[in-house]
Design brief:
This protein has 80 residues and is mainly α. 35% of the residues lie in helices and 8% in strands. The chain has helices at 25-35, 45-61, and strands at residues 7-9, 39-41. The chain has a two-stranded parallel sheet with strand order 1-2.
Length: 80
């Protein structure tokens, strides 16, 4: 817009901020459009991939709870 660019933040800095929309475009792009905010957060990679599989199931069956475990290498966090 005329008043500056929209920033899509891929870090964890804004993921839990109540006033920043958490957006997966294929699922809830309207959250970003309706918010009027200039910063948009996105979930971590595991959540983004998981929601792509879970959302159609939720729409059809109304999921109430999902338990999901993920395992990532310590080296992914910059540890030797």
């Amino acid at each position: 817009g005329e008043d500056g660019a929209i920033v899509i933040d891929n870090s964890s800095a804004f993921r839990y901020a109540n006033d920043v929309p958490l957006c997966v475009p294929e699922i809830n792009a309207d959250a970003a459009r309706k918010s009027g905010k200039k910063v948009i957060a996105n979930p971590n990679c595991t959540t983004a991939i998981g929601i792509m599989a879970l959302y159609p199931l939720h729409k059809k069956y109304g999921l109430k709870k999902v338990l999901m475990s993920t395992y990532q290498a310590a080296s992914g966090a910059g540890q030797p």
